[in-house]
Design goal:
8-stranded mixed sheet, alpha+beta, globular, Aminopeptidase
Length: 185
C-alpha cells in the first residue's frame, strides 16, 4: 500500500532506496508535511504558512509542466513513506544548466538519503536531459548540505544573494568533465 492507504505511486526514477514521482495537486498534505515543517525550511526562507506551502506545491507542478523538471517527491521504496523531495529547476536553460536541490523530512536526515537522491538526479540530468552543468547552493549555516555537495563532486564557485533568507549563499557547480563519471551508481 502507498501513502495514506492509496495504491503505490508510479516512479519514473529509482535509486537503491528511493522512488521519484511527480507532485500532484492532491499532494497538499505531503507538501505540508515537508515544507510546512520549520526544521526543513528554516534555512531556505521558512517557516512557511499553509498558503505559502500550497503556492510552493503549485509552483513545482507548474515547473514540471513548463520545463519537465521539479523538486520531485521521493518515497522510500520499502515502505512508500514520503521522505522529501529532490530534483531540478531551470537555472540557465539557454546553456542547459539546471539547479539541483533536495529537502528531506527530519526523520530521514543522517541516513545518506540526500546523497543517494542527489546522485540519482545528477545521472538523470546528464544522461536524460543533456545538462551541460548543474548548479547548487545552500545557506551558509547548512554544513550538512555542503558535505553532501562535496561528496557528489560539486565545486565551490562563488557566493550569491538569496532573497528568501536575505543572505549570501554558498554556490557550487558540477560539470560532466569535473567528476560526473566518478559518481558511484
Amino acid at each position: 500500500m502507498g501513502v495514506n492507504g492509496n495504491p503505490p505511486r508510479p516512479y519514473f526514477l529509482t535509486s537503491e532506496r528511493l522512488g521519484f514521482s511527480h507532485w500532484l495537486t492532491s499532494d497538499l498534505s505531503l507538501a505540508h508535511g515537508l515544507w510546512g515543517n520549520g526544521e526543513v525550511t528554516s534555512l531556505i526562507g521558512g517557516p512557511f504558512t499553509a498558503e505559502q506551502v500550497e503556492q510552493r506545491l503549485n509552483s513545482e507542478i507548474a515547473c514540471m509542466r513548463a520545463y519537465h523538471v521539479q523538486y520531485w517527491p521521493v518515497f522510500l521504496l520499502e515502505t512508500a513513506q514520503h521522505a522529501g523531495c529532490a530534483g531540478l529547476r531551470p537555472y540557465r536553460l539557454a546553456q542547459r544548466v539546471y539547479e539541483l536541490g533536495f529537502h528531506l523530512r527530519p526523520e530521514h536526515w543522517g541516513h545518506g538519503l540526500a546523497q543517494e537522491a542527489g546522485r540519482a538526479v545528477i545521472i538523470f540530468a546528464f544522461e536524460q536531459l543533456g545538462a551541460s552543468a548543474l548548479f547548487a547552493g545552500h545557506h551558509p549555516a547548512n554544513a550538512a548540505s555542503a558535505c553532501v555537495l562535496a561528496k557528489l563532486g560539486f565545486q565551490f564557485t562563488h557566493e550569491e544573494f538569496y532573497p528568501p533568507t536575505g543572505l549570501q549563499h554558498h554556490c557550487y557547480l558540477l560539470t560532466p568533465q569535473a567528476g560526473f563519471g566518478n559518481i558511484p551508481r
